[in-house]
């Protein structure tokens, strides 16, 4: 009888153990199903996902806008620089394209390799004087060049003249027999702009030699009966100071 009881106890104990194992398995399955349902139905996670998606899209949009802004700042290749070049090419060709300024010759000497050329240092209202090579030896004595006030064309492309780079051109009234340097009005200072009432506007930074802008403007530059330098009859003017003149030459080309 005692043996029977022990066997019965063992059988019951085993059965209880098996039931515990089965119950634990069912609980695990229930927990997994519950977690899956929570993930699918959790409003917090759905909102979080929506927020993430909404925040990612502006980032792409911002990146695209940044790229667009960068392109605009460069002007399609180049913002201001390219736009300036394009606007210059579209402008009419007239005297407003020329950067004409008052200058002062502070040093002058004959070119060592050309008897007809002077090398001048001319103050033009900039950080340093410009080197200018002029074919004036036959027409203007050296002593009359020193400390002289002149009008200078400053936006021609620099060019070598007998080995010296010339950075501007001194404007003169000219005939085959006589050349006179144009004289700015009294009170002018280096850097003063020469302007034209009928042709306002800012000059090109540098005239494009391929466009032949100077060559198209030059034939219309002349002096008038009053000795004033003109473009198509419109006088060279230094604002609030007066007209630019030649000394004696009337109705002759200016170049």
Q: How many strand elements? A: 15
The dominant shape is rod-shaped
The percent of residues in helical segments reads: 25-40%
Tell me the number of helical segments per DSSP (H or I, 4 or more residues long).
5
Show unreliable segments: 41-60, 70-82
Cα separation of the termini: 141 Å
Query: What's the CATH superfamily of the largest domain, by name?
Result: Nucleic acid-binding proteins
Order of helices and strands: HHHEEEHEEEEEEEHEEEEE
Q: In what range is the share of β-strand residues?
A: 15-25%
Major sheet attributes: 5 strands, antiparallel
CATH C-level of the largest domain = Mainly Beta
Determine the structural class based on helices, strands and strand pairing: alpha+beta
Radius of gyration: 44 Å
- Summed over residues and divided by their number, the pLDDT gives a mean of 82
Number of domains: 2
Q: Name the strands of the widest sheet in spatial order.
A: 3-2-1-4-7
Quickly give the CATH architecture of the largest domain. Beta Barrel
CATH topology of the largest domain: OB fold (Dihydrolipoamide Acetyltransferase, E2P)
Overview of this protein structure:
The protein has 255 residues and is an alpha+beta fold. It has two domains: 2-74; 95-243, Nucleic acid-binding proteins (OB fold (Dihydrolipoamide Acetyltransferase, E2P)), CATH 2.40.50. The protein contains five helices and 15 strands. The chain has helices at residues 2-41, 43-74, 79-90, 142-145, 213-217, and strands at 100-110, 118-123, 130-134, 149-153, 159-161, 164-166, 169-170, 172-174, 179-181, 194-195, 221-223, 229-231, 234-235, 237-238, 242-243. The strands form five sheets. A five-stranded antiparallel beta sheet has the order 3-2-1-4-7, with no helix packed on it. Strands 10-14-15 form a three-stranded antiparallel beta sheet, with no helix packed on it. It has a three-stranded antiparallel beta sheet with strand order 11-12-13, with no helix packed on it. α2 (43-74) crosses α3. The model is unreliable at 41-60 and 70-82 (pLDDT under 50). Keywords: Cytoplasm, Protein biosynthesis, RNA-binding, tRNA-binding. Residues 32-42 have a biased composition (Polar residues). This is tRNA-binding domain-containing protein. Residues 51-72 have a biased composition (Basic and acidic residues).
């Amino acid at each position: 009888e005692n043996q029977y009881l022990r066997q019965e106890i063992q059988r019951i104990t085993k059965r209880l153990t098996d039931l515990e194992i089965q119950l634990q398995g069912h609980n695990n399955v229930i927990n997994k199903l519950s977690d899956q349902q929570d993930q699918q139905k959790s409003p917090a996670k759905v909102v979080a996902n929506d927020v993430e998606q909404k925040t990612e899209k502006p980032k792409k949009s911002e990146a695209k806008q940044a790229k667009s802004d960068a392109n605009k700042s460069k002007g399609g290749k180049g913002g201001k620089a390219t736009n300036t070049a394009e606007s210059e090419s579209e402008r009419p060709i007239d005297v407003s394209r020329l950067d004409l300024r008052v200058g002062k010759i502070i040093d002058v000497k004959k070119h060592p390799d050309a008897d007809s050329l002077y090398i001048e240092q001319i103050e033009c209202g900039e950080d340093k004087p410009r080197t200018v090579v002029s074919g004036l030896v036959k027409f203007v004595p050296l002593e009359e060049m020193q400390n002289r006030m002149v009008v200078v064309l400053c936006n021609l492309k620099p060019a070598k003249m007998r080995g010296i780079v010339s950075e501007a051109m001194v404007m003169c009234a000219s005939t085959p027999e006589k050349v006179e340097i144009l004289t700015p009005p009294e009170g002018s200072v280096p850097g003063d702009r020469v302007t034209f009432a009928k042709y306002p506007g800012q000059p090109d930074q540098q005239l494009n030699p391929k466009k032949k802008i100077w060559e198209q403007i030059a034939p219309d530059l002349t002096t008038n009966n009053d000795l004033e330098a003109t473009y198509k009859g419109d006088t060279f003017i230094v604002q609030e100071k007066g007209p630019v003149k030649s000394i004696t030459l009337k109705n002759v080309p200016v170049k």
